[in-house]
Structure prediction request, 217 residues.
Amino acid sequence: MLILAFDTATSTATAALVRDGVVLGERAVPSRGLMAAIDELLDGAGVVPGDLDGVACGVGPGSFTGVRIGLAHARGIALALDVPVAGVSTLAALAAGAGDGMTAVVASSGVAAPAVIAVVDARRSEVFVLDRSGERCIRPADLAFAPGTLLVGDGAVRYRELLERAGGDVPAAASELHLPRARFHALLARSFGPADEALPVYLRAPDAKQAVQAGAA
Prediction:
């Protein structure tokens, strides 16, 4: 199965082309460069859009506008090519990438891999997280974890000082562990179906809606 996967929920968009679990190509670009990146992936793999069997799209949580952009691209491609879409949690893909990235590091040492928490910046002094309690929107100071826990994502980078004081391990800002790499969206995708069934994950109301509600209060 040839899957085009991408995610635009964070400040850096990622895209990947995966066939039967094998990554044919991957890109990390600003969101505005997503379609160009997709064209490059298809050309590099020697395939055309009509060869695609499905689309895996990040559904957030993350930037409200970014999530909508990704889903709009997914639905447009799916409708044009008549292929199914699978929505994948941005946080789940981020955590999966971090876990995979640590495997080689710990394999030779015999030390158990650290627990991983995905942390995406939610703005307004909050973060979206995926931990043992599930997906939540909380204040960084309210995130509890065991010493040595690996924290990844742009939220972990932004609140590095606070999280490291609490005993967390935050990789260098330039580390790819902080990207929700699209290859993991393809690998995590399970339920492919009509494009309009891939729904965004919003863990809080959009800022614009909250502003309207605050003005009406």
